[in-house]
Amino acid sequence: MDIQLKRGLLDVCVLAAIKNEDSYGYQIIKDLKPCIELSESTLYTILKRLEAANMLTVRTAEHGGRLRKYYHITPEGRKRIEDFKDEWKEIMSIYRFVTKEDEAYE
Amino acid sequence: MDIQLKRGLLDVCVLAAIKNEDSYGYQIIKDLKPCIELSESTLYTILKRLEAANMLTVRTAEHGGRLRKYYHITPEGRKRIEDFKDEWKEIMSIYRFVTKEDEAYE
DNA sequence: CGGTATACATCGTATCACGAAGTATCAACC
DNA sequence: GGTTGATACTTCGTGATACGATGTATACCG
User: What residues of A are in contact with residue B84 (Cβ under 8 Å)?
Assistant: First the structure.
């Protein structure tokens, strides 16, 4: 999938991946894999960005001797998903514009 | 509309704007306005990129004493639009993932 | 003991949309 | 004839950001 198309989708995907249950980096990547692929460096950049924007909070917990950072979505994060649904209407109108066939040309 | 979301859409929009009829910069911006807004600097950057990628050709013509550069879509440009339709399936699956409600959570 | 999976972090780079500013022509208005 | 606004294209610098490469560290399995 084209990198440029992924932009703007990735943030929301990450938020969606934690919206029902707190999760951590490695797990998020696995959960998103069937839907959208992203590298670790990309994910951790995104998580930091979302934290700075108050869309999620972080909690460090030990698990099997290793540290894990669990991410929890905030109301702002949920709002971001809702806003995305609105933006989707614009996206759909763009899609229709691009795929619209001109009868005169056909 | 979020800048990041526009990325990956803009190229295809510009190609769509000239797919039925050759057009020039200023006109393309006006035609796209109801669908997606873009500045002149953005458009001319995109046009150069698409030309470099052989997705369109350029022809300079005089019109009312002023020069205009008319852009014409190539087969590669049309293929780009077709490829976009395929990518759209992935986009839709991402949308469904993001908006999917988890019954257990509701 | 070595390989693989887990888990997170940092750095540098390339791509790209945009605002700002500039150049130039033409039509309309006063 | 001077001013303004629309038309038309160009260049420059900046900020955002996805990613590969690389590094660190632990757990588990054979």
Answer: 98
Q: How far is CA A74 from the centre of its chain?
A: 14
Domain ranges of chain A: 3-105
Q: Does B102 reach chain A within 8 Å, measured CB to CB?
A: yes
Is A10 buried (19+), middle (13-18) or exposed (0-12) by CB count in 10 A? buried
pLDDT digits (tens, 9 = 90+) for B4-59: 999 999 999 999 999 999 999 999 999 999 999 999 999 999 999 999 999 999 99
Q: Which nucleotides of C are covered by protein (CB under 7 A)?
A: 6-12, 15-22, 24-27
CA-nearest residue of chain B to A1?
B87
Characterise B8 by phi-psi region: left (phi > 0), alpha (psi -120 to 50), beta (else): left
pTM, two decimals, is 0.90
Asked if the C-beta of A84 comes within 8 angstroms of chain B's C-beta atoms, the answer is yes
Nucleic strand D under 7 Å from the C-beta of B25 = yes
**Å from A94 to nearest chain B CA?**
6
CA dihedral angle for residue A34, residue A36, residue A37, residue A40, rounded to 10 degrees: -110
Whether pLDDT at A5 is above 60: yes
Please give the CATH architecture assigned to the domain spanning B3-105: Orthogonal Bundle (1.10)
